[in-house]
Amino acid sequence: MEVSSAEAALSVSASSIRITDVTQDGDVLTFAIASQKLNSSAGVCVFRIYEDFDWLQQSLFSQENLPGLQGIIFPPLPSKALPSQSNTQTKALKQLGFLALGQDWQSYCKALEFYLQQVAAHPTLCKCKALDSFLINSESPGKQRGRKGIFNRLSQAVEEMRKESHKDVDNFFQNERNKNTNLAALSKVATEKLLDVVMTEQKLALACGHFATSLHLCVNQDDAAAVAFSKVCLKLSDVIEAVNRNFEKVASNDLSTLGLGLDLESRYQEAEKVWECVLMIACKLIELETVKKGTEKAKASKREVMEAFQKAVEKEFNLISSVAKQEIERFHSSRVNVLKNFLIGWCELQLNTAKEFAELYSQHLEACRNMYSE
Amino acid sequence: MSGSFGRNPPPLPDSEDQEAEFDTRVLDSDEEEEDEEGEDIFTGARSKPITPTSAPDEGDIFSEEGSYIRRDVHHATNGLHSDEELDLFTEATVELTLTSTTSQGRREITGPTASACNTTHVPNSILKPSVVTKTMEELEEEESGDKFELNIAVTNPEKIGDGMNAYMSYKVSTRTTLPMFPNKMFSVRRRFSDFLGLYEKISAKHSLLGCIIPPPPQKSVVGMTKVKVGKEDSSSAEFVEKRRAALERYLQRVVAHPSLLQDPDVREFLERDELPRAVNTQTLSGPGLLKMINRASDAVNKMTIKMNESDNWFESKLQEVENEEQLLRRLHAAVDSLVNHRKELCINTAVFSKSVAMLGSVEENSALSRALSQLAEVEDKMEQLHQQQTFSDFFILAELLADYVRLLGAVRCCFEQRMKVWQRLQEAQSTLQKKREAEAKLLWANKPEKLQQAKDDINEWESKVSQYERDFERVTCTVRKEVLRFEKERARDFKHYIVKYLESLLHTQHRLVKYWEDFLPEVKAIA
């Protein structure tokens, strides 16, 4: 890959990209995206809607004059969220999975933020002008919806290619395909099962809250015995309320780290699938082209032309191949790293929560034991 | 009542029977403080009247003869002086402990005052063994004199017979230093219908006096059928355990009641090898009991004439009891829902654990793969924690609430008894009035031959009325005391169980912290 010139590089720091706010107006979510300029201490903030993200993704796909584009694994963009009232939680869960949970679209924003960071961190994609424009221009990228890029052009072909089992041009890719299929399926399952766990944790929190509230109704100041009993009930109510908060915290920890991580992993696996298809198609196209040209040129007997063409084709092929291989290496180390960070974050959060509540329960226990000494 | 204890209690026996460990209920009869009067009256027979050392506020309405004033056997320091003010249980502590061999609940009551408390069983796996030793130490600590103990445990459920005639037999073990029992340690086998039979007998004798009779565990056709049919699954085991624990709590409540302990039927239940089979226990099913209880409320509502100012107390107390029953039902439903959700969490956690294990097995990066397998293990351990916490939720909270819903029903029965006595008095008074009118008519009609009969009638009914008045006073006093005893006990019980629940929560939480702490380095090691 050629080193790009300075002016083509991204003008903000990839790791500084944050989605700082989200507002909802009817059906439309507007995201505030902040980032830090590289060569100054200035920050930038822009407002974007989902369609703008989509535009960005399409722009990335359809970059021209970018050799080896077909070899790139594109960071996956989360699906569009449909926040309208008619959209029940079950529908939202089906559509967005984990990203539908959490308050005020927290998880969803995190996922979008991650997407932007991944794109900005990608050695090739970060140079795309569309990205810079997306992050800096106060005006939205506009209504340029026309350019669809290779992905959409071949979307139908993708499905067909996947159904047929074509020999990959290289065993390396065949292996990747097999691993990917497994991983993708299992990641999806794991994500769904974690989602079930989180939903149950939230239900438990709710049940605790309900119980705690009911205990408050037992308060009665009529006589000494009633007062004593009321005290006890209130104490239990406090304890159950603590259990409630515990579950809420645990569920939210699950959501914000492991849930997000698994969801991302899952979507990345899907993205890799797409990548494989694209690769296959690209290779196939090259094959077809070669055959086509071959037939044409068979008539002419200009050997140099033939050889030149052959070389060009091979060069293109090798480029794609090397990009692809690099991408897959990068992909694997990156995903392991991403997953590791999410796991660490999750473990640390849950550990802190567990300690916090152990302390709280301990205090309650002390207070309870001393109850009659008051 | 505790006259048979004597002044010099025998030393505590060594427990030869190590297999069953018991609840200790300390019966202190040797305190100096105000026993002089009391002990004069004590005799060995069970139903002799006892005058409290200092009479309660309503002492005037008591008569020496025929008064039945209950006094907690086990606190010799305090009679029931003034019910409301004195907190009789300041020094009593109640502990729940587990043995590591048999799964049974124990209840220890230490200190000079003790009363019926409820224990629940928490399965072995939940509590650490260190909890076991604690109570014995505390018991020694608080011993301030010679104490008598009575410990009861229900253990070793065994299925006898086959098919639809099969039944579960439970071992009822008693260990005691009470002089009224010839043996210090003994056990018998009883079946569920025996417990119901006991309830019936006690109820017949004591409920008329206004005692709160602890209700027995409920029948369950579904549960027992599964056991009979021989279904060896966790739900049958759970059912048997639930019943065993409930039977134990039931017995502990019975013996904690001072007058019930004296009842020969209770003693026979504990001591006698073979009990005649109890029949006609049909009426004691859940719905039957409920019907009986609901009638009580209706009867009370029909009481239009107030006897004296204490009726206000009774009326408002009954209302309180009814309200509380509703509340407890609601609470029970809330805890039930909690238990169910936790069970669901167990299942989901297990499924998630498996899915992560599979993910780990196909992962190529070895450190990540190892971390994922560890994660699967952690989730598995958490599933077990959730399982244990479910047991806690159930056996500590849910069963406590269910017990009290039924106990409150028994309290209402108690009020009904008072009503019945009141009605009998009313009727007698009305009959007396009629007899007097009849006499007046006879005098006026000048029929001397029937006059004597009329005078005899009047005398008869006058003495009946005064008898019923005394009965009513007695019942009123009894019910009042019973209610106050019940309330104090309830507060203590609930506190005891909240402490237990918190302990189990804390235990779970500590384990959780450990699991996360162990897992963190694995995750950090991923390269």
UniProtKB/TrEMBL annotation, chain A:
Protein's name according to its UniProt entry: Sorting nexin-5
Domain PX: 1-142
Gene transcribed to yield this protein: si:dkey-28n18.9
Domain of life, source organism: Eukaryota
Listed InterPro entries: PX_dom, Vps5_C
Pfam families (alphabetical): PX, Vps5
PANTHER family for the chain: SORTING NEXIN FAMILY MEMBER, SORTING NEXIN-5-LIKE
Native source species: Cyprinus carpio (Common carp)
Gene Ontology molecular function terms on file: phosphatidylinositol binding
UniProtKB/TrEMBL annotation, chain B:
Entry membrane topology: Peripheral membrane protein
Predominant location category: other
Subcellular compartments: Cell projection, Lamellipodium; Early endosome membrane; Golgi apparatus, trans-Golgi network membrane
GO MF annotation terms: phosphatidylinositol binding
Sequence segments annotated as region (Disordered): 1-61, 99-122
Protein name: Sorting nexin-1
SMART domains: PX
Occurrences of domain PX (ranges): 148-277
Source superkingdom: Eukaryota
SUPFAM superfamilies, A to Z: BAR/IMD domain-like, PX domain
Composition skew (Polar residues), residue ranges: 112-122
InterPro entries: AH/BAR_dom_sf, PX_dom, PX_dom_sf, Sorting_nexin_N, Vps5_C
Acidic residues compositional bias, start-end: 29-40
Regions that span the bilayer: none
One GO cellular component term noted in the UniProt record for this chain: lamellipodium
Recorded family membership: Belongs to the sorting nexin family.
Ranges in coiled-coil conformation: 451-478
BP-aspect Gene Ontology terms: early endosome to Golgi transport; intracellular protein transport
